[in-house]
């Protein structure tokens, strides 16, 4: 009887998918880099804790009607990297760690769902809050044996002909051979490049044939071409993932094609989890959820023609809620106002501007204002002593005039570990794990993603719903 019920449910899902084919015009594919099930869990636990209760407060993406678990191993490794994970999510093919848009032989290229959509006459967008030539976005347009081939991946981007790209910048946009920069090649390929944020898009972006949105040169100077500012560190002039999605929808709709495909990566979740920066990681999940909300507003206007699918390439950090005592204090993370990377920058700037005024008292003031130490978070004696020992190492470095930056950064690392301790959060590593990642979906035919699936099933499943030919 149970088997018959499961069979009927499966047939019903297939019927719904068949009905959806040819009807779905607008496809959103969100990827939370490093976003395992516990990254979602800790975010929702934090949201509930802010309201003074034990439990969870659902975010938008996890409230979608379709929920599943996804396996992430690669063709060659039990633990995938973002290149192999991104290629599986983009093309439905597993590959070797490090490879982009190629099989594990490192010779055979595979096409992505973005290309299938383009071949079907749809407008196509690829966006991220890290570099647009990083592994996950590159998996949707690139074909290279190594994710480190940033310049070659940038050339693949220029050749793709996709309509809209957005992210921090091209990473390593020059070669030693004296070829034109990737920005120059993109412009030669017909792309308009904007670096003035959403306001510049409103003034100039709609008139472009093909568009690339990048962050400002000032932010690139501070952060490098690697990523946008973390959500915790943003000011009102910074380009955000939410703005990127809003601009992308507007631009893709202006193409007047029969629909669009739009892939969006929340890449900074991975960055925060590699650093084991727990408050920062939570805010990056919430930042991705804000971007999802923009797509969901569009879905509400076109519910019969739109699907939104959200997943991840892998989990990062081996995040666990609990360190021994059966309690959590995630509410204390509300006192973290900056990422640990930004804290390092702030303290190093303080030292460089005025070495004589850089004292333990001034550092404690910054830790109080930005991390809540002494203003919401009370440290125990051992934690306080660990910080003071780190400060003593900073004083020694200042006296010897060497490795001052390194010692300041060590102090910030200790700060990071203490934040996890007080919240009762533990981390297995600074790398990836083989933990399950979620898939959330809404829209016609997305029932096929319910349950436990492999990451290679998502792109072909979306293509079938949207009527793309998987090639």
Question: What keyword list fits this structure?
Answer:
two-stranded antiparallel ribbon; globular; Alkaline Phosphatase, subunit A; 471 residues; 2 domains; ten-stranded mixed sheet; 17 helices; 14 strands; alpha/beta
Largest sheet: 10 strands, mixed
Q: Shape from CA axes?
A: globular
- Measured on Cα atoms, how large is the radius of gyration? 23 Å
CATH class designation of the largest domain:
Alpha Beta
The assigned structural class equals: alpha/beta
Superfamily (CATH H level) name of the largest domain: Alkaline Phosphatase, subunit A
Could you tell me how far the N terminus lies from the C terminus, measured between alpha carbons in angstroms?
39 Å
Uncertain runs are: 1-20
């Amino acid at each position: 009887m149970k088997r018959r019920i499961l069979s009927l449910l499966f047939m019903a899902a297939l019927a719904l998918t068949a009905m959806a084919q040819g009807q779905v015009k607008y496809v959103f594919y969100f990827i939370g880099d490093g976003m395992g099930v516990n990254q979602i869990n800790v975010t929702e636990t934090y949201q509930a804790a802010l309201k003074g209760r034990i439990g969870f407060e659902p975010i938008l993406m996890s409230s979608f009607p379709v929920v599943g678990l996804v396996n992430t191993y690669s063709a060659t490794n039990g633990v995938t990297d973002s290149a192999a994970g991104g290629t599986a999510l983009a093309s439905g093919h597993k590959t070797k760690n490090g490879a982009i848009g190629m099989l594990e032989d490192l010779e055979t290229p595979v096409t992505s769902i973005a290309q299938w959509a383009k071949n079907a006459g749809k407008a196509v967008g690829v966006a991220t809050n890290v570099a647009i030539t990083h592994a996950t976005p590159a998996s949707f347009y690139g074909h290279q044996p190594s994710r480190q081939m940033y310049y070659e991946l940038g050339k693949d981007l220029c050749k793709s002909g996709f309509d809209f790209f957005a992210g921090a910048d091209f990473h390593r946009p020059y070669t030693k051979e004296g070829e034109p920069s990737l920005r120059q090649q993109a412009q030669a390929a017909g792309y308009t490049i904007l670096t003035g944020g959403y306001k510049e898009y409103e003034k100039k972006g709609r008139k472009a044939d093909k568009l690339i949105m990048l962050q400002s040169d000032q932010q690139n100077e501070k952060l490098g071409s690697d990523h946008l500012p973390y959500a915790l560190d943003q000011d009102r002039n910074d380009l955000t993932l939410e703005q990127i999605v809003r601009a992308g929808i507007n631009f893709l709709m202006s193409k007047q094609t029969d629909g669009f495909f739009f892939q969006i990566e929340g890449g900074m979740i991975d960055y925060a989890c590699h650093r084991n920066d727990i408050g920062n990681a939570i805010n990056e999940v919430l930042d991705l959820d804000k971007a999802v909300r923009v797509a969901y507003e569009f879905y509400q206007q076109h519910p019969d023609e739109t699907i939104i699918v959200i997943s991840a390439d892998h989990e990062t950090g081996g995040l666990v809620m609990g360190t021994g005592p059966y309690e959590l204090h995630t509410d204390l993370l509300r006192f973290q106002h900056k990422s640990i990377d930004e804290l390092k920058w702030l303290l190093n700037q303080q030292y460089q501007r005025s070495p004589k005024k850089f004292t333990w008292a001034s550092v404690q003031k910054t830790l109080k204002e930005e991390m809540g130490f002494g203003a919401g978070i009370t440290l125990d004696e051992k934690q306080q002593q660990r910080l003071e020992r780190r400060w003593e190492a900073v004083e020694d470095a200042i006296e010897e005039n060497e490795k001052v930056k390194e010692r300041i950064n060590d102090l910030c690392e200790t700060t990071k570990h203490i934040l996890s301790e007080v919240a009762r959060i533990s981390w297995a590593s600074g790398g990836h794990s083989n933990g399950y990642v979620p898939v959330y979906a809404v829209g016609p035919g997305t029932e096929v993603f319910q349950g436990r699936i492999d990451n290679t099933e998502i792109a072909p499943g979306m293509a079938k719903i949207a009527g793309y030919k998987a090639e």
